[in-house]
């Protein structure tokens, strides 16, 4: 048994019943195996991989709040501060009933390497709660956010840990969280990103993850001598990432045929109408069943099904493990040329292997969706210098960051004899910088 296998076994033994965390660690360790073998003595002596897989700090706390009927409710809150070797902890907050410590740890672990790939000085962290904002009044969401921040504030700060949004946490939630932090700390600082434009937010942060995904996909296809323009795409999700991925795809000449939420999915043969989607999801917080009212030619189906629609490009933008082996087989049978991940870990390990074995260009999440956190880091820069950049400035920087990521992961894959394996390239390139910083900083 080699070093990486030993480390994986220890992680599973020390963190029982956390399948998503195990999956993320396994995917990472398998792909950096050649680097670990080349440096085995050094890594073993410094327990480098063992330290990398152990969060620097993890916090779980009670979040009590009162609902509109006067009933007290209790949720669990989490923040996992995974690795600060290259900068303050940075990563989103997820509010969804499925949240548990294993989910937050997988997300925090991925965030370490994603943030490294951006080239910006940000460490990895993630947090959230099993609170479900769906169906709650604005007052209930505010009560929850205030209670959540009443504990979280003591662990975060502009130079310590800077949370942002993720599933279930958008502009409304960030506003309530920021207001409570400022009130408790009496400090107006860039402690959160994804803020509103009137109180320190950055232009283009709302669009950044989706736009970045498309800049990444465009460049990845380009280095494979394929022009993105004129292609068709299937997208899953109908939230922040999906909406702006669809918008940028259309600007680049791609026809997007589908989107989905947790109850069903839409097929629109004329291309998804982004304005309709924004009104349904961002303004009305409604279900996709509404879409047909805007587009009578479209179809709505209950359940899941977007991967069965034939298209050139697949962009999973909803949640983890939403694209399984059967879906991968369908995509290959349909002649899909590329899968680029907007969501975090949306493709199962078996599906990823199948896609790679069948020549599908695979853009892994930690590279493909890094545009969101990269733009968050640009928001931190603007907050530090107390200036705001124009949309065009931020968007141009975002585009260049995504182009750089494509070339860096391509070179890293080639350097270790894994030409075209961009998942390996992303893990290796992201890891190398963190590894150097950890070794330089001693045993901490
Ligand atoms: N926001 C960001 O900047 C970034 C987000 N990501 C990742 O992108 C993904 C989407 O995030 P984001 O768009 O921000 O989140 P949103 O909450 O805005 O949207 C999430 C979308 O995915 C659907 N969804 C969520 N959970 C499930 C589920 N269990 N099964 C089926 N559908 C589901 C939601 O449907 P419904 O409304 O019905 O729940 C909704 O359409 C996540 O994996 C997130 O971690 C990655 C990088 C940055
Ligand atoms: O903007 C951020 O800090 C984090 C975005 C995020 O949650 C992610 O990259 O998964």
From TrEMBL:
Substrate binds at residues 90, 111, 114, 165, 376. PROSITE patterns: GLFV_DEHYDROGENASE. It comes from the Bacteria. SUPFAM superfamilies: Aminoacid dehydrogenase-like, N-terminal domain, NAD(P)-binding Rossmann-fold domains. The record marks 166 as: Important for catalysis. GO terms for biological process: glutamate biosynthetic process. Gene3D superfamilies: Glutamate Dehydrogenase, chain A, domain 3 (1.10.285.10), Leucine Dehydrogenase, chain A, domain 1 (3.40.50.10860), NAD(P)-binding Rossmann-like Domain (3.40.50.720). InterPro entries: Aminoacid_DH-like_N_sf, Glu/Leu/Phe/Val/Trp_DH, Glu/Leu/Phe/Val/Trp_DH_C, Glu/Leu/Phe/Val/Trp_DH_dimer, Glu/Leu/Phe/Val_DH_AS, Glu_DH, Glu_Leu_Phe_Val_DH, NAD(P)-bd_dom_sf. One of its GO terms (cellular component) is cytosol. Pfam families: ELFV_dehydrog, ELFV_dehydrog_N. The active site is at 126 (proton donor). Residues 202-442 form the Glutamate/phenylalanine/leucine/valine/L-tryptophan dehydrogenase C-terminal domain. Homohexamer. Belongs to the Glu/Leu/Phe/Val dehydrogenases family. NCBIfam families: PRK09414.1. This is Glutamate dehydrogenase.
């Amino acid at each position: 048994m080699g070093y990486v296998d030993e480390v994986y076994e220890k992680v599973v033994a020390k963190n029982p019943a956390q399948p998503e965390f195990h999956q993320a660690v396994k995917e990472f360790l398998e792909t950096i195996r050649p680097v670990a073998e080349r440096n085995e003595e050094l890594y073993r002596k410094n327990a480098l991989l063992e330290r990398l897989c152990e969060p620097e700090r993890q916090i779980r706390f009670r979040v009590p709040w009162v609902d509109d009927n006067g009933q007290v409710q209790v949720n669990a809150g989490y923040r996992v501060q995974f690795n600060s070797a290259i900068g303050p902890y940075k990563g989103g907050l997820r509010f969804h009933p499925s949240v548990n410590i294993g989910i937050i740890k997988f997300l925090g672990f991925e965030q370490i390497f994603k943030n490294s790939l951006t080239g910006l000085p940000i460490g990895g962290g993630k947090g959230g709660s099993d609170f479900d904002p769906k169906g709650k009044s604005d007052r209930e969401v505010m009560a929850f956010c205030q209670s959540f921040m009443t504990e979280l504030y003591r662990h975060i700060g502009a130079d310590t840990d800077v949370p942002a949004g993720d599933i279930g946490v958008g502009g409304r939630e960030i506003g309530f969280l920021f207001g409570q932090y400022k009130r408790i700390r009496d400090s107006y600082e860039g402690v959160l990103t994804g803020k509103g434009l009137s109180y320190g937010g950055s232009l283009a942060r709302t669009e950044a993850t989706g736009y970045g995904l498309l800049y990444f996909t465009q460049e990845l296809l380009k280095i494979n001598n394929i022009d993105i323009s004129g292609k068709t795409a299937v997208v899953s999700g109908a939230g922040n990432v999906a909406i702006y991925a669809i918008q940028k795809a259309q600007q680049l000449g791609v026809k997007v045929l589908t989107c989905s939420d947790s109850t069903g999915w839409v097929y629109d043969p004329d291309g998804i109408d982004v304005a309709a989607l924004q009104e349904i999801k961002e303004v009305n917080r409604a279900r996709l069943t509404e879409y047909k009212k805007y587009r009578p030619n479209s179809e709505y189906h209950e359940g899941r099904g977007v991967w069965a629609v034939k298209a050139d490009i697949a962009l999973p933008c909803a949640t983890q493990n939403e694209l399984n082996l059967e879906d991968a087989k369908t995509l290959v049978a349909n002649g899909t040329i590329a899968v680029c991940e907007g969501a975090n870990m949306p493709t199962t390990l078996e599906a990823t292997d199948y896609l790679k074995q069948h020549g599908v260009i695979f853009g892994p999440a930690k590279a493909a969706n890094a545009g969101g956190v990269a733009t968050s880091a640009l928001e931190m820069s603007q907050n530090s210098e107390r200036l705001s950049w124009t949309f065009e400035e931020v968007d141009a920087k975002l585009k260049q960051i995504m182009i750089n990521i494509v070339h860096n992961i391509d070179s890293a894959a080639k350097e270790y004899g894994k030409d075209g394996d961009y998942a390996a390239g992303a893990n290796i390139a992201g890891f190398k910088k963190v590894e150097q910083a950890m070794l330089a900083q001693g045993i901490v």
